[in-house]
Amino acid sequence: MTTSFEQLLELLSDETQPFPIEELAELSDLDAERTTQLSKVWDLVPTDRRRTLIHEVGTQADLRIELTFEQVNRLALSDPDPEVRAIAIHNLWECENPDLVPHFIESLIQDPTSQVRAAAAKALGLFVWLGEIDQIPVDLLQQIEEALLEATKEDHEDNVRRHSLESLGFSSHKEVPLLIEQAYQSGDEAYIQSALYAMGRSASDQWGSYVLVEMNNPSPAIRNEAAKAAGELELRDAAESLIELLDDVNFQVRDSAIWALGQLGGDEAADALLLLLDNTDDEELVENLEEALDHLAFVNNTRDFYLIDFPDNEE
To answer: How many CB atoms neighbour CB 275 within 10 A?
Structure first.
């Protein structure tokens, strides 16, 4: 029997009933009327069930591309429970609507819980990138950058400062390179990871030597971030080091090296990935290798296209 929207709202509020996971598709793509209905019963839903709800809509949105729970997540942004607020911010990671920015900035600056502030700092990264490609107004980008810069300096929690720095990685603001440098030179492993993350987002070759050095770091977490940064920056000089990481004892590092080689392109990268593909029957590894090789072929073909010497048009 199909559960109606009204029945679903009743089930969500009733702790004596099993949580209706299979019926949550009813909450997808809510119109204004149903959003209002949900908002009226929201506070009647017990906290643990609101947590389950916001977690499950995030999971289902990832699994089923046709489902969108934006209105549910927007409603949850003002939930009294910090865990619900943080998950709701995370669930909105693909939403590019700039009307979310004021709420994220407010959460970053004013929320009493570091979990929520860190989630807001991370979410603002998308809008920094949109600002850099002229998809949001300049003054809005400036507000975002100011809030993130303040958080990197003033917030008392490391996770908030680090996520703020990572989001600023996309920014061309004059203060950002120094902040990345300071984090990298801090000697703190977590800050070095965030610095490498920001370097990868920067699209600046000034960080190439840092990334190359850290691919030999004893810490697998740092090697992993360095490998990803090499791919993001398309560091062709990193190909040899990335190929060495294909034998890394840490599978996450290996998978990041596979992805990065796919971003770089080139015959050397292709040969290394094909050799690994020929010598494994691990299904997940095969899938990762095939995806990297597909992207590598695209990169190579694109570069070949730009190397073609087209004749000038003649009148």
So the answer is: 12
